[in-house]
Amino acid sequence: MTAFTSLSRAMLLGWFRDRSALFFSILFPLMFLVLFGGVFGDMGTSRLAVIQVGQVPLLEQGAAGLGEVLEIQKSDDPAAAREKVKEGDVVAAISQQGDTLQVSYSAADQVRSGTVQGVLRQVVSQANAAGVPQRFTMTAQQVEDDSLKAIQYVTPGLLSWAVAMGAAFGAAATLVTWREKRILRRLRLAPVALGSVVGARVGVSVAIALIQTAIFLVVASLPFFGLQLSAYWWMSIPLIIAGTLTFMAIGLVAGGLAKSAEAAAGISNLIVLPMAFLSGSFIPLDAAPGWLQTLSNVFPLKHLNQGLLDVMVRGQGPLSVLPELGIVLAFGLAISLIAMKVFRWDTV
Amino acid sequence: MGSTIIVNDLRKHYGQVRAVDGVSFSVEQGEFFGILGPNGAGKTTTLEIVEGLREADSGTVEILGMRPWPRNPKLLTRIGVQLQATSFFERLTAREQIRTFASLYGVAAKKADEMLAQVGLEDKADTPAERLSGGQGQRLSIACALVHDPDIVFLDEPSAALDPQARRNLWDLLRQINDNGRTVVLTTHYMDEAESLCDRVAIMDDGRILELGPPASLVRGLESVTRISLETGTLSVESAAEIAGPGASVDDDGVSVTIGTDDPARVLTALAERNLLTGIQVRGATLEDVFLNLTGREYRA
Prior knowledge:
The complex is a heterodimer. By secondary structure, chain A is α/β, with parallel strands linked by helices.
């Protein structure tokens, strides 16, 4: 084994055997996912509410039985109705053009929209079977989903927070404990290139971040949460790696300033947690005041969030997040320079 | 046999504090060399400069013909350093620790396992380093320092905080390392440790070497007193003073009567004539006396 692989192995084993590190980098963020995605997620949509746009004779004919399944609201404004679907207030907007039933639904909630479509198809076929002179058909159409359902929004935000926290804590704790326990000194007295030590730490942090990502995406995609990844989600991988590097640098600054592992964890938390709130990791910034939205741009986490949202759930193309990728890396580079300034080999 | 380590007029200041203040010594190949002194004497700073962890303000260090500062990887493969029992990777077992260190030097895992056995930790191989006892931790630390078969081994206070039994075991191990022909440099604040292990000792205090030589000759060179103790009551203070003669001291602490003399042979003969040798204790000068003599103050680690 080379120095690089054996150091990587030592660090990974150390991380894996550290229950609290495992808890904070994997389970803790998942608890938030359950909280935000599972519990709050259900609060946005009332039970199988649909909105009827204009006159829909078909619905009125079958209204007797339908009332038990669908809660039918009425509107005369097609645009406002579509907006309600997008926002997840209702499952679908239904209108009738001659003998065609038009259904607009949101891809964000496929289970419900599928149920509603099934119900409506039954309505159509019952009407046809009843021998009414008209032959009815149904068309279903997805509304563009630019306002995202809770889980769609929560997953990238929480993932970027989890990765940021894992990378910053990992780097800070390693630096401080290795310095306090004199492992850094011991490594200085071994014929090891500094690059191997740093490289191993970076490699391990990136590996941990990718493990976090995999677990997160698997859990969020469970039917209970129902995350729908868009086509270019894999573009999140370079973003995650860039984010890991940047937050490692933040952790190294924290570790350079701190005198104990506890202090390092505290400083990292003090940096990452408020940043997560102000960058919209937990709560969307869309409703935040303008000055806060402007302020959020000075945080690398905001750009990481933005990039992850764009490629994971908003369905944007792989090249669209290159600016975010560049910004996150630029932050990383600048913070690394600070980290080098405050780096100490030794306690004295 | 040439000198493997040559240290010349080393100085290191921290602000007003002269941690190392003109230290010079050389260590022969295969020698067991001790740096002895109380805490804060400058032993560790000296050792760290020699190892290449710190840069001296002035003075030179040469190890195996090479300079340790700036960091010299070629030299690092030939020296082994034991820092402290706690210098381990977190949450790794003893075997994983030593294998990790072995691979840093390009040494095979098999060799690492052999070294673990050599320090008697075979049955602790799967124990996390954190759960080893103090003595076991020190032995693992020393095994990690030896795994690449270095020519010179530096040990910084290896027996600090060990119980007496663990210290004795450690001493046996250290002697064994030295018997294999390695040069060993050790710092300690235990007088008995230096006396028992070292071929030569440098006594340091206040950043300076006060005296340097084999422990026995340092002690012998001392115009020292031998202390002879008898149980109180076997001999009155008056008769003790009479036996001891002028220039000697007699002291009775209620448990033993102690005669301090520079002519122990005469006193012992006199005691033997009176058939008073039963339960007698004779204590010659130790390095502690040397320290006391050199600094005028009692030795306290």
